[in-house]
C-alpha cells in the first residue's frame, strides 16, 4: 500500500497557510507524494509551486481541478509551469466537483459533468504527453516551449461514466471518503470497464481523513468533513447501511452543518476515515488494501494536531 499526503486548505477557521505546513512535514517525514488540493481558498498550481519551493523531494499532484471551470490547456500549462519552476514532476487530478462549488463559488454552469470530465481527461492526456516544439494545441501555431510536467493524470470517479473516463485516460483513479466496501464495489466497476475497453486498469487511490489518537476537536473536524457527504447520492446509502439513517434523513430535510455535526455520533467517522490509536488505524489501512485500494492519500486532521504531525509521524513510511 502506497501512502501519500493531501495538503488542502480547509474552509473553516484553520490557518490559511496550513497546507504548506502539512506539505513540509510530509516531505520531511519521507512521504513520496503530496497533493495540492484545489478549493475556494487556494489555487492548486500556486499551492503546488509553493510546496515545491519549500520541500526537497516529494512528487507533486495538483487538484482535483474542477473541469467545468478550467480548460485542458490551462490545466496542463499550470502543471508544466509548476514543474519548470520547482524542478519536480507534477501531475494533475481532474474531477467534476460539486454544484455548490462550480456554480456557487465560480459562477459557472455545471452541466453534463460526466461528459465534461471525459472530454477534459482526453484532452489533458494528449497535452500531458506532447513535447517542446510541437504545437501547444493542434493547429494553434504556438509551439510548446516547456517540457511535459512529468506527473500522472488522475481522474476522480464514482459513477459509471466517470469510471470509464478514468479507465480510458488516467494513470490513476481517485475515490474520496469511501468505506472499504465501497472500494471493493468501485474496484470491480473499474475492472469491468477496463475489460470492456481492452485496457490495463489504472491504479486506485482514495483520499481518506486520518487522525491518530484524536483529541475531541480533531474528531469534530473529521466529522465535519463527513457531514458534507450525507446527501450525496451513493454516500447517503452507505451511511444508512452503516446505521446512520436518522442523520441522513435530517440532512435530506436541509439541516444546517452545525445541526448535522451535533447529530453525528463519533462512530460515523469509522465508516470512511482512519481514526483511532495507531494499531486501529493500521488495521483499517490493511482493510482498505484487502478491498483493492493501491494507495491511500492521507487527509490529516489538524485541529488539536497542528499540521497533522501526530498522525503523519505515526504513519510515516518505513
UniProtKB/TrEMBL annotation:
Signal peptide: none
Pfam families: Bac_luciferase (PF00296)
SUPFAM superfamilies in the cross-refs: Bacterial luciferase-like
Residue ranges constituting the Luciferase-like domain according to the UniProt record: 12-294
GO molecular function, one term: oxidoreductase activity, acting on paired donors, with incorporation or reduction of molecular oxygen
The keyword Nucleotidyltransferase is annotated on this UniProt entry: no
InterPro entries: F420-G6PD/mer, F420_Rv3093c, Luciferase-like_dom, Luciferase-like_sf
Name used for this protein in its record: Luciferase-like domain-containing protein
Keywords: Oxidoreductase
